[in-house]
């Protein structure tokens, strides 16, 4: 058993050493089109952003692993109008759920520079607020506040899939869709009312 461990360690070290000169470090940012799915009704997209860094680790000529750390602004928007007790209302509420994301993407290069990517992602909730804007009668025209953090899961899990294209100079472009697997709702009704994050990300970045 010790011999097998030693051989495995030598093999991993050899692969790492052989590819060390090809490891790429980079940064990226871009636009999020985020919404909430599951048992949520009438949720529109929240347009926000993501920003962070990455390391691309090649394992062969066409295959690489790419861990990332991103700040990702997510959530959803809701619009409603009507009247209550004779008082009209017409407003938009933005649910702001911002995360530190840690995706680990497996990348397969189809041709030079063009890669398909997919992998799991863990995210940690760092901001949870709401903002409303419009005519809310006696409540005013706009405002903001904190969501009840006890009703929200602090950790989210999702699967990401997309594609990227890197130019020889290091500039790259990418698009990825993150489909939430975890339940954002951690309240008393979490078993009956499930909510998950869905996010389309368009990115531009640079790696060297």
Oligomer: single chain
Q: Shape from CA axes?
A: elongated
Strand content: over 45%
Mean pLDDT: 87
Most strands sheet: 8 strands, antiparallel, barrel
Helical content (DSSP H or I, runs of 4+): under 10%
pLDDT < 50 runs, ≥5 residues: 1-18
Q: Please count the beta strands (DSSP E, at least 2 residues each).
A: 9
User: What class, by secondary structure content?
Assistant: mainly beta
Written as H for each helix and E for each strand, in order along the chain, the element string is HEEEEEEEEE
Distance between the termini: 39 Å
Strand arrangement, largest sheet? 1-2-3-4-5-7-8-9
Specify the number of helices. 1
Provide a descriptive summary of the structure in words.
There is one protein chain. This protein has 208 residues and is mainly beta. Helix content is 9%, strand content 66%. It is built from one helix and nine strands. An eight-stranded antiparallel beta barrel has the order 1-2-3-4-5-7-8-9. A hairpin with a 2-residue loop joins strand 3 (63-84) and strand 4.
Essential attributes:
208 residues, disordered N terminus, mainly beta, 9% helix, elongated, 66% strand, 8-stranded antiparallel beta barrel, single chain
Summarize the structure.
9% of the residues lie in helices and 66% in strands. It contains 1 helix and 9 strands, in the order αβββββββββ.
């Amino acid at each position: 058993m010790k011999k097998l461990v030693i051989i495995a360690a030598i093999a991993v070290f050899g692969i790492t050493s052989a590819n060390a000169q090809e490891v790429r470090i980079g940064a990226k940012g871009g636009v999020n089109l985020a919404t909430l799915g599951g048992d949520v009704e009438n949720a529109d997209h929240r347009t926000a952003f993501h920003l962070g860094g990455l390391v691309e680790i090649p394992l062969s000529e066409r295959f690489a692993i790419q861990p990332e750390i991103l700040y990702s602004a997510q959530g959803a928007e809701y619009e409603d109008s009507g009247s209550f007790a004779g008082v009209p209302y017409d407003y938009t509420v933005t649910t702001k759920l911002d995360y530190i994301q840690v995706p680990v993407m497996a990348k397969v290069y189809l041709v030079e520079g063009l890669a398909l990517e997919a992998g799991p992602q863990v995210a940690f909730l760092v901001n949870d607020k709401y903002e409303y804007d419009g005519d809310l009668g006696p409540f005013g025209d706009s405002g903001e506040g904190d969501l009840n953090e006890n009703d929200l899961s602090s950790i989210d899990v999702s699967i990401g899939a997309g594609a990227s294209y890197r130019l020889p100079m290091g500039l790259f472009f990418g698009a990825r869709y993150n489909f939430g697997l975890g339940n954002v709702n951690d309240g008393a009704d979490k078993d009956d009312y499930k909510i998950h994050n869905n996010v389309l990300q368009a990115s531009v970045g640079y790696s060297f």
